[in-house]
């Protein structure tokens, strides 16, 4: 595969930002296979954003020649009080996350934080050294990646979190740090601070975040709360949702007459068209069946009124079910891994 094709694989959607393309080119020109990493806190059940969208990009990178790794951040999950801060529950849920990513991303390496940190004095030494370059103000700004606001009272451990996240990249040997756009501040912290440590800054790759299916509401400081969330079941489509549940969620989904902030169009663009054409089935009196081979056409028809919201939702429902079905079926054989979620009422 030629270099330009590999670069396009790295930067194609759902990638939203690559910092920088030229640094990525240099990585791909090396004789050594570059190393990728993406990290996940261990929390609730996975949805199409957390598993499918992430896996699309991981698989692109694998095809482009990267050694890909998923980091299951169990220590970070404790710091951020996921699953109620229950260590045993987090370790059990990590097995579920591992199975999901191994299935969705063939060839990916799975690493747990507890494995990386165990008996690793160098790691903790580097966390302290790195933290010496980080102000409280900047660490606080990075907390937004944890779903925390700047005005929220934080414990001391949470202030260490951004430094740990940045040092993870180094100790995993990663050349490229990958995450959703919500992790951008943490990656920019690493890129700014690594040279002060005498380290080579990682390339930062950020993919698009799927918006919530629910109508946005005003959040703190006037910000819009509109991201899919594991703690809000109706905000997103989960990888275990039945066809009936997917249909129910899409039928009630927010679908304004615009492309920006429209979760149904976002799902069509990011998920459905990733897997091929999107087919709209409707009676002849409403225009008859039509098959769209690219997103631009379906968006144009919807915005012009040629495609009704109900027909768009039905087509996206079918596309989502087709994308989710293989993972859902896989976990029918691994249902025991989900038992941890029935033992606790905590969903985050």
Describe this structure in words.
The chain has about 350 residues and is an alpha/beta fold. It has two domains: about 5-205, Rossmann fold, CATH 3.40.50.620; about 215-340, Tyrosyl-Transfer RNA Synthetase, CATH 1.10.240.10. Helices cover about 50% and strands about 10% of the residues. It contains 15 helices and ten strands. The strands form three sheets. The protein has a six-stranded mixed beta sheet, with helices on both faces. A two-stranded antiparallel ribbon has the order 7-8. The chain has a two-stranded antiparallel ribbon with strand order 9-10. Helix 9 crosses helix 10. It starts with a helix and ends in a 6-residue tail after the last helix. Mean pLDDT is about 95; it is low at about 220-225.
Topology of this structure?
Blueprint: H1 3-11, E1 15-19, H2 21-29, E2 36-41, H3 48-63, E3 69-73, H4 74-79, H5 87-104, E4 109-112, H6 113-117, H7 121-131, H8 136-142, H9 156-171, E5 176-180, H10 184-197, E6 203-207, E7 217-218, E8 224-225, H11 243-251, H12 263-272, E9 278-280, E10 290-292, H13 295-304, H14 309-332, H15 339-342
Parallel strand pairs: 2-3, 2-5, 3-4, 5-6
Antiparallel strand pairs: 1-6, 7-8, 9-10
List keywords for this structure.
globular; Rossmann fold; 2 domains; 10 strands; alpha/beta; 348 residues; 15 helices; Tyrosyl-Transfer RNA Synthetase; six-stranded mixed β-sheet; two-stranded antiparallel sheet
């Amino acid at each position: 595969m030629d270099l330009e094709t590999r670069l396009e694989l790295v930067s194609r959607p759902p990638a939203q930002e690559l910092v920088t393309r030229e640094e990525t080119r240099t990585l791909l020109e090396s004789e050594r296979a570059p190393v990728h990493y993406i990290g996940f806190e261990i929390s609730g059940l996975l949805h199409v954003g957390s598993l499918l969208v992430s896996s699309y990009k991981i698989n692109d990178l694998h095809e482009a020649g990267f050694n890909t790794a998923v980091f299951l951040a169990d220590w970070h999950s404790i710091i951020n009080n996921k699953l109620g801060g229950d260590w045993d529950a987090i370790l059990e849920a990590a097995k579920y996350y591992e199975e999901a990513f191994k299935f969705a991303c063939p060839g990916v390496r799975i690493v747990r934080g507890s494995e990386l940190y165990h008996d690793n004095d160098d790691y903790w030494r580097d966390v302290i050294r790195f933290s010496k370059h980080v102000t409280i103000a900047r660490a606080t700004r990075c907390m937004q990646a944890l779903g925390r606001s700047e005005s929220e009272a934080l414990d001391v451990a949470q202030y260490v979190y951004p430094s740990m996240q940045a040092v993870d990249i180094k100790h995993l040997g990663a050349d490229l740090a990958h995450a959703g756009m919500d992790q951008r501040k943490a990656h920019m912290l690493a890129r700014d601070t690594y040279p002060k440590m005498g380290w080579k800054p990682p390339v930062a790759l950020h993919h698009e975040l799927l918006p919530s299916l629910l109508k946005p509401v005003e959040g703190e400081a006037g910000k819009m709360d509109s991201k899919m969330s594991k703690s809000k079941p109706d905000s997103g489509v989960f990888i275990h949702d039945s066809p009936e549940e997917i249909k129910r969620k899409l039928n009630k989904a927010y679908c304004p007459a615009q492309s920006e902030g429209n979760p149904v169009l976002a799902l069509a663009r990011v998920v459905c068209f990733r897997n091929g054409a999107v087919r709209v089935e409707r009676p002849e009196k409403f225009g008859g069946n039509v098959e769209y081979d690219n997103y631009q056409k379906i968006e144009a028809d919807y915005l012009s009124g040629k495609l009704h919201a109900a027909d768009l939702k039905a087509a996206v429902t079918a596309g989502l079910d087709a994308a989710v079905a293989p993972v859902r079926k896989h976990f029918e054989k691994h249902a025991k891994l989900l038992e941890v979620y029935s033992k606790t009422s905590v969903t985050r």
